[in-house]
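haha ok so turns out i had the wrong file open the whole time. this is the CORRECT one, sorry everyone. sequence first:
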Amino acid sequence: MSKPRRNGSATTANHRGRPDLCIVGGAGRVGLPLALTFAGRGRRVVIYDINAKALEVIRRGTVPFMEAGAEALLQRVLAEQRLSFTTNPADSAGVEAHIVIIGTPIDEFFNPKHRDLARAVDPLVPFLTARQLVVLRSTVYPGTTEWLDRHFRSAGVRPSVAFCPERVVEGRVIEELQTLPQIVSGVTPEAEDRAARLFSCIAPHVVRLRPMEAEFAKLFCNSYRYIQFAATNQFYMIANSAGLDYYRILQGMQQDYPRLRDLPRAGFSAGPCLLKDTMQLTAFYDNEFSLGYTAMLINEGLPLYVVQQLARVQDLTTKTVGLLGMAFKADIDDPRASLSYKLKRVLEMRAKRVLTADPYVRDPELAPVKRVIAESDLLILCAPHRLYRSLNLRGKPVIDIWNFFGRGGRVPGDAAPAKAARAPRRRARVRA
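then structure:
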């Protein structure tokens, strides 16, 4: 690979020709896997991001977060000179297509915050023409794509504007980009066609919708998943409060009964998307999306329920509680909006001491997992990372709302000693 050059505020690596795709905000968990996937399919991609430090890490061949297959793909496309990096919006001039990825532009009340989107795209305006395509990729409040088109026109530029939402699972983005259908929409038929051609390069097929239909499709997808998790979490709490093993019931419900095979296990449901997108729908629908609001109360209330149940049978003021897994879900390194941290804050007000561990999350307050197990009076499994299956829990009581340490769908009492985790037909009530 040719030596990178520095040009003012930009850090670039030479391509074999002009880039044909610019990923705006491409150094993050959504943008980088997308850039790598396009580059892996032969596109010449430039990542434009204001985070120069992250770009430098990536340019050296390191992916700064967990993503299956990303590092090997990054090193390959760097060697093939199909990926470059810049902090200078001028380097996007003449690039055929731009995909804009920023954090969901909403305020603390989940209403649209268009000025955040404007701040992301305005540096590009001097370099945009009617021959270029701008694709909005971030999850947005309904109507935002049309707003972006008007915003460009008011600035005197008329690129083709499209909305093509991502619907992939964090940690498996590269795989799912190439195996799941891609929804595409455009403000004009030309924009829709151009977006369809662009994503046909990586997706098995595309699904065409109008812009607001596509915006709702993304929000409905995440809200439905959030409601599913709320249903199983509510069932868990009902069964648990009755002194019953929820997973024994769940196994009985699902056995040879395909209508319930998509009912997930109970567990903490959080992260940067599900709650936020559900609440965006609530805000859009004048706070009358009661199903979504109820799902929020259930999912956000599960950590409180666990603490309340524990406090009934334990004097928490005398106990050290160890939390295993601080990421928002299993087998990733992302702690954003993790309910593990909500549980930690609640326990810090009730317990003698709280210790936390996670093999992937970067947090200076985390302790080695062996120390957490050794020094804790009881443990709570917050994120069921697969490598925890080999842990020696030293017979400590474990609260396991996931049934992670169970066998065949049957789990012991949630606060039963870990050595009993393989015993069948035990109650699932939260107790010591």
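The longest strand covers residues 182-186.
again sry for the mixup
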